Description:
Blueprint: H1 2-18, E1 26-33, H2 42-59, E2 66-69, E3 76-80, H3 87-101, E4 107-114
Antiparallel strand pairs: 1-3, 1-4, 2-3
Helix pairs in contact: 2-3
Amino acid sequence: MKRFLGSGIFLVLYVVTACGVSEELVYRIVVRFGSVCCGIDHEVYDKVMQHIADREQQTGNPIAVKKVYWGKEGEFNLCMPLDELPEAGRTEFIHKLKSVTKNVPTVKVDENSRCTDSWE
Length: 120
């Protein structure tokens, strides 16, 4: 099952990228992974991706994730519209994401934000 979920995330990432989704869209949640000197915080990234996989397993639906790289040290943003989840599910999903990334200065969670190729 875990292999299938990983493939599902890749497929959604590919489809979202290949279809040329406009970066002017406002996404329900954008998780920005920055770096001070040596790349992103992979431990936090793994927790975020596990949270996405867990929610996919709970709902039986893949969550659309657009990954936009922007830095010289592998920095990127994960942009999610969360249209697959009901509003209450979105609120809970975002709350959990914020708890996973809390107090990590190189990770920022923005709600109702554009999917840019920068920290801002």
